[in-house]
Amino acid sequence: MGFRDRLAGFIAGKSTQGAARSYKEAPTVTMNVNTPYHYRRDNYEAYADEGYRKNAIVYRCVNEIANGAASIPFRLFQGDNELDEHPLMSLLKRPNPRQAGVEYFQALYSYLLLSGNSYPLRSEVNGEIKELYLLRPDRMRIVPSNTAIPKSYEYVLNGKVAEVYDADPMTGESQVKHIKLYNPLDDFMGLSPLMAAAADIDQHNMIAKHNLSLLNNGARPSGAIVFNPSDDRGVPIQLSDMQRDQLRDDLEARFSGPDNAGRPILLEGDFDWKEMGISPKDMDFISQRNMTAKDIALCFGVPSQLVGVPDAQTYANVQEARLALYEETIIPMARRVESDMNEWLAPMFGDDLRIQYDIDQIPAITERRRRVYENVVSAVREGIISRNEARERLGMDAVRGGDDLYIAANLFPLGSAAPEGEGSASTDPVQAGADAYGYEGGVKQEVRRDVFTTREEADARAEEIGCIGTHSHGEGGQTVYMPCESHEDYERLTGDEVKAESDVDTVPTAAMQTEAERALEWRRQHERGGTDVGVARAVQLKNRQRLSPNTVRRMRSYFARHEVDKEAEGFKRGEPGYPSAGRIAWGLWGGDPGQRWAERKVKELDRESEKHDMIMDAMPEVVSDTKQREISERINKALEKKVKDHNDEHGSAASKRVTLRMLQAVFRRGVGAYYTNPESVRPSVNSPDQWGLGRVNGFLYAVRNGRFKSGKFDTDLLPEGHPMSTRD
Fold first, then answer.
1. Which of 561-570's residues contact partners 24+ apart within 8 Å by CB, and which partners?
2. In terms of Cα–Cα distance, which of 401, 608, 423 is closest to 498?
3. Are residues 552 and 601 in contact, defined by beta-carbon separation less than 8 angstroms?
4. I want to staple 181 with a disulfide (CB 3.0 to 4.6 A). Which of 50, 190, 418, 520 is the partner?
5. Which alpha helices (H) appear in 382-451, and where do they start and end?
6. Mapping DSSP to helix (H, G, I), strand (E, B) and coil, where does residue 425 land?
7. d(Cα 131, Cα 367) in Å, to the nearest integer?
8. For residues 550 and 609, what is the distance between their CA atoms, to the nearest angstrom?
9. What percent of the chain has pLDDT over 70?
10. Over 70: is that where the pLDDT of 606 sits?
């Protein structure tokens, strides 16, 4: 039976008897309770009337907080996954037929601010929660038990108990949720900001009444009529009571009120008018009124300049004041309600559901995000944090090469001696060139493109192009070094997977360029079709960039998989829904011209690859120092460093401690995914080692934060006890 039905039954004289229940009792706690029930000791109606209805400052403060908190949108999570559609979200958006979500929560926060207490009520139909209501706090009466948990909540109408809501004696679970503000002198009831500001509110109201009365009297102080007659003997004559009353009534009728302000007074005989002046100090009501307004706003946690108090510029501007209101008042109160909703309401729809306010959607928080961004950018610029650390703080994914620290090239410690050779550059231009560009003995270390005489130079070049290690060649009786552990990795990264394949023209045709441009425009207009990989491919085709052999093979693979999309409705011109999402995606990869071109180019590349293999068989001197190793020594060292760095900072808990074997397994799976599922690899990744290390970084992020940045993977390798671990 719903709340409205039970309330209607009470009015009609009906009653319902709940089924008998048995509970385990909580430990007995001595409470400060002298009566069989507990209720408000203050006069809530007086606070609501004189505070909220008759005081502009209280009205503004309550509405600033309640409206601001109620306008923050909710988000719903099931575990780590956000849910867009769910019965709980529908309930929060429309709690009951009379109130929408914003209106409901505005009332909830207003009750909390005016009373210190708020009582949401969930209405169940056949065991399912269908509606949410709010009970007036002045009508609620708490029935204590012999423990710290109330026995029940009673809703009282016209002195009679309309409804009783039992509470679980062990957990306190009830159909009613008591949300309250902290009160140091009451075991059950919350303390409203109105109580702390009561004296200031009374003073503010009395000043307003005084000014109103003054306005009714012509907006000027009253005066006195002095009667100084005397008889023939010089003895003063006094007015009779009747004469005195008649004179006062005549003056009030003719000269009081704003309509009579400024009219001259005509006095006859020995009458004189004496002005009743008040000193400027005593007349300083405006200043006193502003002081009480500041105190009222202070109790509510609202910056004074937001409620219109003159000369109350605590913050530089209104934006900063509003940001302070959200950060110091609204968000903490919203978090309190969010916590209560997760404790009382969310479990009724599922144990793993979690309600969360979307704080980032608050317009005033934009200023804070801007400051965070500026601080992070400044820290990167000054070399304090790396780019990937900055991206993590901004909620963005890591990028390749973003773990290094950079500072301006002209920075050096003040007062330190210049490094050897610095500040005294050679005047010999040949020697200056050798110092600047790495000549040794008149022979440049880079013999030709990416071929070096030292391993260090090749190793540095390997980091630039995104691979690890070096390999050597015998050339002219000496050993030369090239970046990457194998020549295959080097050729793949530099777009020359096979030397002979580089002779194949892989520049997109004009027809492919036209298809890509059209598809990009369709995607912008219709907001559908294709993925980020498809968009990146379309940009390459639009600019007619030379494509690597690996990219050409991916294009043929894409067209082979998506050939079936051409049969769907909306793919062909003139069909309903044209262009369909599949048609747009097809165009991003070059369309029919791209399909024909990719088929033709892959055949050419395969022929050249066969020639290359025959040549390579005759050149055994081109070897890789570590090619045969499953995981190279350099990769192992990198993984060992990641293990040490992670465990030093996060390994105090067993559920967050990682091992080398754990990261090696993650790395191997990443390398395997690079070859078996190439479509999942980002366009910026050009080697299996790079993809494997990226997978390791994503795995460590999940270990640290308890969630993945994107889709879950390798959960069976997570440490034992980790919340996402799927270990048996």
1. 562/586
2. 608
3. yes
4. 190
5. 387-393, 429-437
6. coil
7. 37
8. 12
9. 70
10. yes
Half-sphere exposure of 255 (CA within 13 A, CB side): 15
Helices 660-676 & 688-705 angle (0-180, nearest 10): 130
What's the pLDDT at 627?
Answer: 36
For residues 2 and 123, the answer to whether their CB atoms sit within 8 Å is: yes
Interval 239-261: pLDDT, tens: 677 877 777 777 777 666 555 55
Residue 515's nearest CA partner among 602, 589, 601 is 589
- Written as six digits, the tokens of 237 are 């004559």
- Residue bearing tokens 């704003």: 258
Asked if residue 1 lies in contact with residue 124, where contact means CB atoms within 8 angstroms, the answer is no
Structure tokens given for 8: 């209607």
Alpha helices in 466-590 (DSSP H): 487-493, 510-526, 532-542, 549-561, 581-588
How many angstroms separate the CA atoms of 488 and 628, rounded? 13
Q: Both tokens of residue 10?
A: 């009470």
Q: What are 500-517's pLDDT values in tens digits?
A: 555 677 889 989 999 999
CA 560, 566, 570: angle at the middle one, nearest 5?
A: 150
- Using CA of residue 629, residue 630, residue 634, residue 636, what is the dihedral sign? negative
How deeply is 490 buried, as exposed, middle or buried, from its count of CB atoms within 10 A (0-12, 13-18, 19+)?
buried
Q: What residues does 180 pair with on adjacent strands? A: 117
For 4, other C-beta atoms within 10 Å of its C-beta total 14
Nearest to 650 by CA among 580, 703, 610: 703
What is the reported pTM? 0.49
Burial of 310 by CB count in 10 Å (0-12 exposed, 13-18 middle, 19+ buried)?
Answer: exposed
Strand partners, 74: 357
Distance CA 393, CA 372 (A): 9
Distances (CA, A) of 413 to 410, 416, 417, 418, 419: 10, 6, 9, 9, 11
169 vs 184: CA distance, rounded Å: 23
pLDDT-based confidence at residue 419 (cuts at 50, 70, 90): very low
Distance between CA atoms of 123 and 246, rounded to whole angstroms?
68
**CA 187 – CA 144 distance, rounded (Å):** 10
